[in-house]
Amino acid sequence: MSLDLAALRAQFPILSRQVDGKPLVYLDNAATTQKPQAVIDALVSYYTECNANVHRGAHALADEATRRYEQARDTVAHFIHAASRQEVIWTSGTTEAINIVANGMAQRLKAGDQVLVTEMEHHANLVTWQQACLRSGAELHIAPIHDNGELDVEAFARLLNQQTRFVSLPHVSNALGTVNPIKDLTAMAKAVGALVLIDGAQGIAHGQVDVQDIGCDFYAFSGHKLFGPTGIGVLWGREALLENWPVWQTGGEMIAKVTYECSTWGSLPNRLEAGTPNIAGAIGMAAAITWFMQLDLNAVQAHEYALIQAATEQAEAFNGLTIIGNAKNKVGVLSFILDGSHPADVGFILDRQGIAIRTGDHCAQPLMRRLGVPGTARASFSIYNSLDEVNALFTALKKAQSMLA
Amino acid sequence: MSLPTTEEIIDDLAFFDDWEQRYQYIIDLGKALPAMSETDKTEERLVRGCQSSVWLKSQSQGEQLHFEVASDAIIVNGLLALVMAAYQDKSAAQILAFDIDGYFHSLDLERHISPTRGNGLRAIVAKIRALAEQH
User: Fold this and answer.
1) Does domain B6-134 have CATH number 3.50.50.60?
2) Does residue A20 sit at the B interface (CB-CB below 8 Å)?
């Protein structure tokens, strides 16, 4: 079965709008993906039919809201092959998920311990660990990349040792599109006894993620990069770790018994989910996953591959364009600079032609310094983009190049 | 091209009927913006946007404030030239009285100076107004 792109696009109402009188060409999918009607409907349905607070109401609406909300957790657990629904913790997004883990580790790390991240981190998976190390006295080590944007796996291996307590790395680089061999890297880290977190913000929408197959201890991702709403995400972690993990926020929902002197914590998953959760977000995210899973994922992946292939071929043929990040295994992202032009200028002129890309440091300032560029222009593709849109990108880039010359 | 006045800029931009001419005009203004010396581009003068960076150097000359501005992006330099047309060598009272949002609105460029744009322009305007208030 191949992908019916027209039918797929028709499910995303926003894709038919115009910008400055030109059809929207949305190539900023690594920042956030657009939402299919099924997700919008799920949000509307929740608010119009059964809005109520979960877990604590003694009435019909509360029961129904709780049922939909907890079913959403089951949907996520099934989607990522979690061993149990207890392992799925709702968060506000990938960033909060990593913060839960990094803050917990900060209480357990001590001087002499080491944490290893990579040179291609988004700030969310760098600043969190930097601060955890500063608080605990542990050392932060950075696994370098090759010039083409691939992780230097040999250097990564050399940096692992008996002091390495934690390894945190991205599934897919947001700035370069590099797909890391996370299963192999996880096995190497586990061999020295380290815990492993995979930042799945960019990986989740591109492949079938099986957390048990990866072998990691934590996997973090956001709903909004997976066709779901913003403000909702997931921390998946092994139950044996999460059930004793230092609590994150304290307050309602996460407690067992409270006196004026002390409190005891509830059981998973609630112990890491203080306060009223993002109920609509969770339901919307599950709707996105349900929608995504009914696609022919092999056809989707083949289409995504065709998009990045076509974009790369045109970029290579484009005089005066330099691709930033040439990893052999890339998905979704074409990062580049037009020689002699600032990425922001390229972005301005593309925007005026209805083409949405992102320019700048992509929340990865140390990576930009490593690559020796002030930032890049980044076109990022999703399953609903077409080859015509890839062509439109390069036509618009020609215009930008001539105007900025 | 010497720096035009705000009135000239409003007239010039109104004259163009397609976006390419308008952007080319802004690019040309950016190219004409007097360059700031590299040694003046210090960390203290830097306003970092997440897309581009802007530097601002100011000095008072009697009643008036004189500025040097620069960006690493050419279109931001052009937008800075539009800002300079409003503020350069003006008194603190003139700077504070100038309706910069109305000006960008009349140029149909307000989305470039909105707080949501990471180009540092909004921050520069705020800095210039703060300097004028202290003056």
Assistant:
1) no
2) yes
